[in-house]
Structure of Nicolin 1:
Amino acid sequence: MCLQEMSGGTAERKMVTCTVKPAIHLQIGEAKSDTAQSGVSVVDVMLPFGKTINIQEITFKNYYTASVTVRLLRKKPGHEAMAKWCTALRNLVLMENPHTEVGSQDYCSISRSKMEVDPDHVTCVRLILRQPSSNWLTFSLDDVQLYPHTEMDPEKEVADWLSDLTLVDQHLDIEGLPDPQMVSSSIQQMWALTQVMQSDQTMASIGRFDVDGSYDIDLISLT
């Protein structure tokens, strides 16, 4: 995935110390007099001797490279046998049209999830660059960086989550809200007043022609 700007999360992570070798351009022809650019070059990213890495992300800035293939030299842990090369990603397009400048100088990121194999126990990363267009004299990748993959401890993850909840509870903004005790007191007073009003209401039923406990003959005769 190519980005116009690198994400803040990548900038906050610690990159791995590595050595980016100068690009080797493949030539066509045997004699120096008839060699020509093939449009393919190879860049090796070396880790310190004896070190391996579980890769989370590879980042770089493109410089007129049309596509890139990522190969990894992986070593099985606990085995003294020679490490083996494998292809993690094949022909990732960096420029949709190699003859135009669109995407030619974008910042790019290749995440672990985009790779076809698990990029673990890696001792070397080989980037195979391709540029079929003759419009550009040179092509390369600049500022190549490797970022390690780390597994989160489940117990630590839960502890961090509980800690975040505690911090949210401690920093809960209650400014502008009424005092809970005052609200409770007001509700109790309203309830007591309601009870008094209900007890004062008369339960006697007033009939249609009932006047002081007796019937008015005139009222009855008028109906």
The chain has a mean pLDDT of 79.
